[in-house]
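Long-time lurker, first post.

We've been arguing in lab meeting about whether adenosine-5'-triphosphate would sit comfortably in this protein at all. Half the group thinks yes, half thinks no, and nobody has a model to point at. So I'm putting the question to the forum: if I give you the sequence and the SMILES, can you give me back a predicted structure of the complex? Inputs are below. Any interpretation is welcome too.
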Amino acid sequence: MNDLMIYCQGVSKNYRKGKTVITPLEKLDLEVPRGEFLALMGPSGSGKTTLLNLLSGIDSPSEGSLVIAGVELAGLARRDLTKWRAKHVGYIFQLYHLVPVLSAFENVELPLLLSPMSRSERRERVTSVLDLVGLGDRMHHTPSELSGGQEQRVAIARALVADPPLLVADEPTGDLDRESASHILNLLQQLSKEHGKTIVMVTHDPRAAESASRTLHLEKGRLLETV
Ligand SMILES: Nc1ncnc2c1ncn2[C@@H]1O[C@H](COP(=O)(O)OP(=O)(O)OP(=O)(O)O)[C@@H](O)[C@H]1O
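Top reply:
Settle the argument with this. Predicted structure of the protein with adenosine-5'-triphosphate, as tokens:
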């Protein structure tokens, strides 16, 4: 089990809306080895974002066992889950979610501001992840001075800066042209192959899924076999 980043057994998620119960995920089993780049596809409403939220500790399963990086998340209190998340997971959004008035450097620095780290160590970390995503020469630009692809690279640097072993990405290329998308996908591949990051990426684009090492399909809250 040590070589597994994600071990998910019988995981269900229910939401109650008045008398109705919605079950976006039902009895899901999933194993993801460390360093795998997994693509998750499926129609709208099939539970993809719900699954990413569970894997990243934003939400908790209603049932089942969810072990990530050796930690059982199902029983953790919300406060512990938040602490766990800060160390273990980087979240990449379709629309980047950068703070518009901050520079690329300051956006990437944000997750480190609460950690007990010296200013110089912080500066070194931020600079090195911005170099890694190829934006070493743009770190003083604000998001409006960057292209969409560059904004997404800043967002990836922000997700990486605390050095989490797991990256989850919700349609990271959904708002990009083909060339910028291909740069982002190459970068994600590099992060899994060369830096050992485990990546779970939701995508609607079969071309994007081809960059991953495995693709799974969600259908009404259930996982279908590997393609
Ligand atoms: N907080 C919530 N409360 C109630 N229902 C929810 C909640 N979050 C998600 N759902 C429901 O769960 C189902 C799955 O939603 P989810 O966002 O996971 O789908 P998705 O596959 O990511 O869809 P899309 O591709 O459109 O983003 C939907 O029917 C949605 O309405």
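For your lab meeting: The chain has a mean pLDDT of 93. Residues 178-193 form the longest helix (16 residues). Whichever side wins, do check it experimentally.
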